[in-house]
Write a structure and sequence with these properties.
This protein is globular. The chain is an alpha+beta fold. The model has no long low-confidence stretch (mean pLDDT 89). α2 (92-102) links the parallel β4 (79-86) and β5 (109-114). The N and C termini lie far apart (32 Å). The chain has helices at residues 54-72, 92-102; strands spanning 4-7, 22-28, 31-39, 79-86, 109-114, 125-133.
Length: 139
């Protein structure tokens, strides 16, 4: 079995079920994949950040994803795939604008899904990610 490391930075939202915020897996000497569970706009105390503001929630979620990547030794440019869950497609433009500012070229693969609701009613967006962290970073 691959070497798996749980990534759970201090101050990050505590899981409310049996899952890890992120898992890092070795895929070749020095290279690793990081699988980031769906992140929502809850702070460390479990309170919703930016209630009613889809762009604010998206910014906060991407900050959490970046925090997990940094903790794993990566950067946002290491993301190769995203899955974005929206509770209302009317929020697509606001969330897409944030996404387009946060992600670099080449952009990762991406899936967008509208859902009837998320685990917490105040959450408007949830984003999961997969990243590949190289053993040596090119300058």
């Amino acid at each position: 079995m691959a070497n798996r490391i749980v990534i759970s930075p201090k101050g990050h939202t505590k899981p409310i079920a049996r899952y890890s915020p992120a898992i890092s897996v070795s895929i070749s000497p020095g290279d690793r994949m990081v699988f980031i569970s769906g992140q929502v706009s809850s702070d460390a105390a479990g309170e919703t950040v930016s209630v009613g503001d889809p762009a604010g929630q998206a910014r906060y979620v991407f900050e959490k994803i970046e925090h997990l990547l940094v903790e794993a030794g990566g950067i946002m440019e290491d993301i190769v795939s995203l899955v974005i869950y929206l509770t209302d497609m009317e929020n697509f433009e606001a969330i897409s604008e944030v996404r387009n500012k946060v992600l670099t070229e080449p952009p990762p693969s991406s899936t967008l899904v509208e859902v009837s609701r998320l685990a917490v009613t105040d959450h408007l967006v949830e984003i999961s990610a997969i990243a590949v962290l190289p053993s040596e970073r090119k300058s």
